[in-house]
Amino acid sequence: MKKGRKDVYLIQTLLFSLISASIIFGYFIFKSRGFFTVVDDFNFQQLPFATAVWNMIHSGDAGEWCWNIDLGSSFINTFSFYDLGSPFIWISLLAPRGVFPYLAGFLYIVKYVTAATTAYLYLRLFVDKRQWAVIGALLYAFSGYQTTNLEFFHFHDVVAIFPLLLWGLEMAMKDKKYRPVFVLTIFINCLLNYFFFVGEVIFLAIYYLVRYRKLPVRQFISGILTCILCGVLGVGMAAILFFPNILYVLGNSRGQNKLHLENLTYDSAGLLHIIKGILFPGESMREFSAVIRQRWSSTSAYLPFFGISLVIAYVRGKKKEWLSNLLWILGIISLFPLSESIFLLFSESNQRWWYMFVLVLALATTKVLENIEDYPVMKSSMLYVAMLSIFYFTIRFVKWNANGDSIVFDVKRFTLFYFIALAGPLLFCVLKKLNWNSYKNILVLTMCGCILTTALTLHFYRSACSNSVEGYKENFEAGLQLKTIDAQYRYNSVNNELMINGDAAGIGVFCTTVENSSRKFDALFGHYSSNRTQNKYDVPGLSELLAGKYEITREPGDKKILDTVVGREKTFYVTEKNACPIGFAVDFALTEEEFTAIPQEQKALTLMQAAIVDEDDFGDLNDAVIHAGEGSLDYEASVDELVAKAVANRVSEFHRDSHGFTCTASYDQNRLLYFTVPWSNGWIAKVDGFETKIINSGGMMALKIPAGEHQIVFTYHTPGFRVGSLVSAASVCIFMGFVFINKRKKRG
């Protein structure tokens, strides 16, 4: 292609991906009258989270602490995984408050078009006839991975941007002048999502070793050093988000190693699930049609229309290239949980990394389409058809235990996906036989495959929650209107769309990235979950302990109504109940070991009277609290009586904002204050302007206060954020200098 001439196939990629995505999402946007929902995580996390980020950014006083995520949580650590690094979310910040559900469908279209475009930029490097890169780009953008992850809105950000990373590497290896471009692609991917970026670095290392292993030794080593230096600079530029989140992950239960030698291989169901994910179109993770009923592991690498038929042709071709080796390596990795876990630093095994695998599959398919006569496409397509059929009929008719049970949970859906997968390669063989396999014909059929498989699974996702969509809209709109009534108290709710959209703050949340100390607190009550802190009602007094004073109801009865909000013509009433304030003085203290031994039904009642402290802290607290012994705590009193005592001992003039909270304390003797606010290294407490030690009280915070009247200020700064900001600023300056020097050399 001549220099300066427009790449018409890039324009085609934009156009055809836009048409395909618009048909898919436009239908559902129209059907839902603009208010776009999917199911589960999308509805209850993505929509409220994006709204919460909008609220925080537009508050005019943006800080680092978000009160309406759980009992309070770091704004940066909570939302970096979902929103903060996403350019697609940044677009939504330009819109009015509360309209994100009306933007989400259109943002999905933008993401799919971006994924196709970036994939095209990468794929065209390996073909002479660029029209086939258009096909490959569509296969990547509308792959089974994208389809099965439709409820994970933020996953599509990663898929859309990732091809730039490989494109940047290829360009930098081709010509030194592109090294700044490579740095930028590293920066963008790292800033976008720290979790996926770690896996991308591992993949990039494998890719480099396979792709460039035949280079001369000096050039090979030089390339490695280039990758490392560019990587350090790119990550440094993204350190503003990357540093604090790495510190956060190190203390997260999900970051702990969960794999052992017995996890070396999948069980029979797990292995069949992997094979099905490679052979069959992507399905709804909440209700697979066969093998495994439900699993949130992103298990699909299906390419629309073709499946892996042309990938098989590529690896069976006479000409063996680096790509064949990479396909074999990635294929073998995908079959074993221990090897798959390398993309998550051996913490767990899932198929979150398969979008990278899909791009390689799309590349192999593209190369076969360009030189179709050089590959055994007919035999390979028939082999793929045979593999599909053997799998389908085996799963469909073989009984898998002595009881004669089947592992097909939805026969119609499983059969439908079988015929869809089957139709592509068979139709392709017919076209090839009749010599009708032109670019235009293949393009039309590919687009049809993309639209069919994506729209079908999106339909299955949405149909799973169709009965609750109206109720969801009501909650979402009502949540936008809820206000803080008294900063000392929270709403007695764990409903995301009610508690996160507005100024309300609840007592639990469905979210993966809350403060690590919140999980520690939950564990004290026997609640273990990596993605939610909503179990607050099975322990007597727990919701009252956590300041859950305000209740939201449709039927207030004879209760006093404090406020009313309306969601889609449905009225919600805010009433109140007895609850402890967020901060109050306690008379007793006990160790975590002593607290653990207390019966479950008495644990919340205990914390209304006593704070958990380390054994080493008792010496400093003996003039403020009594070490709780047997019989010293009152379990005969009712919850209301204990709440009344906590209210009598509460702090005064409590005020909270995105920087922390302030209050005053006035007691006639030294006291220990207990705050149901998650502890973090990021908190600094000052009493009358002097910094005071914060006690980690079982995941919450406690503070010793001397007798008299005092002003207390708690200020939160996300650990690692300041250092990360400085590193980012310095790295950006270095990068600008790098670009300047690079341009001077180019001119010279």
From TrEMBL:
Q: Mark the transmembrane ranges.
A: 9-30, 99-123, 130-146, 152-169, 181-208, 220-243, 294-315, 327-346, 381-402, 414-431, 443-461, 721-741
Note whether Membrane occurs among the keywords.
yes
Give the keywords, sorted.
Membrane, Transmembrane, Transmembrane helix
- Supply the InterPro entries for this chain: Uncharacterised_YfhO
Q: Which Pfam families match?
A: YfhO
Annotated protein name in UniProt: YfhO family protein
Q: Which organism is it from?
A: Anaerobutyricum soehngenii
Q: What is the lineage of its organism?
A: Bacteria, Bacillati, Bacillota, Clostridia, Lachnospirales
